[in-house]
Amino acid sequence: AIDIKTLRGTSGIVTIDPGYKNTGSCESAITFLDGEKGILRYRGYSIEELAEKADFLEVAYLLIFGELPNKEQLAAFHLDIKNESHVDEEMKKILDGFPKSAHPMGVLSSLTSALVAFNPGSVDVASSDAMYNSIVRILAKFPVLVAWAMRKKMGLPLDYGDDSLGYVENIHKMMFKRPNQEYKRNRVVIDALDKLLILHADHEQNCSTSTVRIVGSSHAGLFASLSAGISALWGPLHGGANQAVLEMLEAIEADGGDTKKYMAKAKDKSDSFRLMGFGHRVYKNFDPRAKIIKKAADEVLGDLGINDPILDIAKGLEKEALEDEYFVKRKLYPNVDFYSGIIYRSLGIPTDMFTVMFALGRLPGWIAQWREMRLRNEPIGRPRQIYVGENYRPFVGVDKR
Ligand code: ACO
């Protein structure tokens, strides 16, 4: 629905478009999305093909630099990342300052911001070399911070990566390696993780990406812009939905598995409850990522021999919603977050790390969007408003109020 108002402000005509539902903020050559037809493409390549045939690092390169890398380019990119994979030991003191109960998204956002202090050069991106170095640095260090955020919660020692492994396998090892235990490779787990990261890698001008671009438009630097993006992603209406979905499914299970009761709650306008993982600002037909993830959830749980009642509840809710007039009329379909949490859970990732995993996947997209914004010399983002407050009032001293 178009809900744009054009009003006369004090300095000319201003368009009000709550939630920017119909406002384009930029031109972009990164991600194509057709919400009516359920099409998603990165740099022209379909999400279905990329999820099936590419790996996450290739997709990161594609999103950031515009083309799929050849073997040499990919190897050089990976080597540059490996060479930057250390994180200053002082960063551990910052992590130490957080209680174990801290939400890992807050920890991650803070640590990403703190990285600037240890990499002051990351703010200067005037030359293409400087920009490339910043990009490689964050792609290298961010997974270490992700692993640290989780290990701290689990009381595990903080570790670094293993340069002999692929990008995603190394992330998995950093997260799950136990002291005095050999790390065991599991292809099913790594492939599932790789696929999930690809599916989350970019989604044009969503809330967190717009945040990265707008913060970056003040030339605040890549790491600071990313830190803001992480905070934007945290909310339950955005990336935080994957955690909220799982908590909702667990609550339904604990309550006896009555999906109809929760469907009724979601439709009840006097109740603020929403069916988490349903609906999308842009997809009004289906979310192509949800289709891929649903299939992946079946495969991964099957391969790992896990029989999860939560998956059955999710499928039940989806079936009911697809036949329900309320959901059909409002074009509310499962989104990317509906099934992703079930896979994360089967991989042994704690629930409050789900949105962190989303951030890990979205990192290349944020970087690509930030780089595009800087290379296009976009002006500082600065929306206008219509002032609706008090007119001029003379000041009254505190003793006369
Ligand atoms: N459950 C029940 N009703 C819903 C849901 C839901 N999940 N989502 C939307 N609706 C209803 C609204 O109440 C509204 O009904 P009305 O027209 O009778 O008032 C109508 O559908 C339109 O909803 P809006 O909130 O106006 O749609 P908007 O485009 O602003 O919001 C959003 C999209 C935020 C994704 C919303 O669908 C939602 O809250 N979903 C649940 C949270 C979620 O899964 N977020 C993840 C999104 S994907 C991502 O960020 C990766």
TrEMBL record:
Signal peptide location: none
Catalytic activity: oxaloacetate + acetyl-CoA + H2O = citrate + CoA + H(+)
A Gene Ontology molecular function term of the record: citrate synthase activity
Pfam family, one: Citrate_synt
Stored InterPro entries: Citrate_synth-like_lrg_a-sub (IPR016142), Citrate_synth-like_sm_a-sub (IPR016143), Citrate_synthase (IPR002020), Citrate_synthase_AS (IPR019810), Citrate_synthase_bac-typ (IPR024176), Citrate_synthase_sf (IPR036969), Citrate_synthase_typ-I (IPR010953)
The protein's annotated pathway: Carbohydrate metabolism; tricarboxylic acid cycle; isocitrate from oxaloacetate: step 1/2
Alphabetical UniProt keywords: Acyltransferase, Transferase, Tricarboxylic acid cycle
Family classification: Belongs to the citrate synthase family.
PANTHER family to which the protein is assigned, alphabetical: CITRATE SYNTHASE (PTHR42871:SF1)
NCBIfam families noted in UniProt: cit_synth_I (TIGR01798), PRK05614.1 (NF004126)
Name of this chain's protein: Citrate synthase
Species whose genome carries this gene: Croceitalea marina
